[in-house]
């Protein structure tokens, strides 16, 4: 597949494949956006490189997905924007089902802190060296991750105390 990259994104992709040839897995385009998949152990270095060298100073979003596959089940996606060059780049990392773990990028983009907490809370992906690693939506002692595909749509009965839905009677 031929890529239709702007000059700026072509430089970014060339730089990534040169600087991180061992960690650079693939690049593709979908719906007009460019996606780069890299190895998990290089994500912090690649993010630092993208921010400092190519001015991707804005982390617009960071989210997780459950691919529900036997290998590399979870995926973390970084939606990066270069305001100077008006370019968007999606950086993707795949993680195994057993002990999904990544280094935090909260030191690079402060906004990553809340988004990494959400990914942990919903999918169970751990972010090492996170400055405030704890659940964000679910109770601290909740042992499940509700966005995983095996989680029942109606929840797990008795796993969380809910308020009564019937009005008090006198």
Structure description:
This protein has three helices and seven strands, in the order αββαββββαβ. It starts with 6 loop residues before the first helix and ends in a 42-residue tail after the last strand. The radius of gyration is 19 Å and the shape is elongated. Helix content is 22%, strand content 27%. The chain is an alpha/beta fold and 170 residues long. It has helices spanning 7-19, 43-54, 112-123, and strands at 24-30, 33-38, 58-66, 74-82, 87-95, 101-103, 126-128. The strands form two sheets. A five-stranded mixed beta sheet has the order 1-2-5-4-3. The chain has a two-stranded parallel ribbon with strand order 6-7. Pfam families: Complex1_30kDa (PF00329).
- Overall helicity: 10-25%
Using the CA coordinates, give the radius of gyration: 19 Å
Which residues sit in consecutive blocks of at least 5 with pLDDT less than 50? none
Number of helices: 3
Structural class: alpha/beta
Keywords:
170 residues; ubiquinone; cell membrane; single chain; translocase; two-stranded parallel sheet; elongated; five-stranded mixed beta sheet; alpha/beta; 7 strands; 22% helix; NADH-quinone oxidoreductase subunit C; NADH_UbQ_OxRdtase_30kDa_su
Task: Please write out the topology.
Layout: H1 7-19, E1 24-30, E2 33-38, H2 43-54, E3 58-66, E4 74-82, E5 87-95, E6 101-103, H3 112-123, E7 126-128
Parallel strand pairs: 2-5, 6-7
Antiparallel strand pairs: 1-2, 3-4, 4-5
């Amino acid at each position: 597949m031929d890529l239709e990259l702007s000059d700026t994104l072509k430089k970014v992709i060339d730089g990534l494949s040169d600087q991180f040839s061992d960690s650079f897995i693939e690049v593709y385009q979908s719906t007009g956006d460019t996606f780069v998949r890299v190895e998990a152990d290089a994500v912090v270095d690649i993010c630092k490189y993208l921010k400092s060298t190519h001015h991707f100073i804005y982390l617009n979003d960071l989210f997780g997905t459950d691919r529900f596959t036997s290998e590399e089940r979870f995926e973390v996606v970084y939606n990066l924007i270069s305001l100077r060059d008006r370019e968007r780049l999606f950086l993707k990392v795949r993680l195994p089902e057993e002990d999904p773990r990544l280094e935090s990028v909260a030191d690079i983009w402060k906004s990553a802190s809340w988004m990494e907490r959400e990914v942990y809370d919903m999918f169970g992906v751990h972010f090492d060296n996170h400055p405030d690693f704890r659940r964000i939506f679910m109770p601290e002692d909740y042992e499940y991750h509700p966005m995983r595909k095996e989680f029942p749509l109606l929840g797990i009965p008795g796993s969380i105390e809910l308020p009564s839905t019937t009005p008090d009677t006198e």
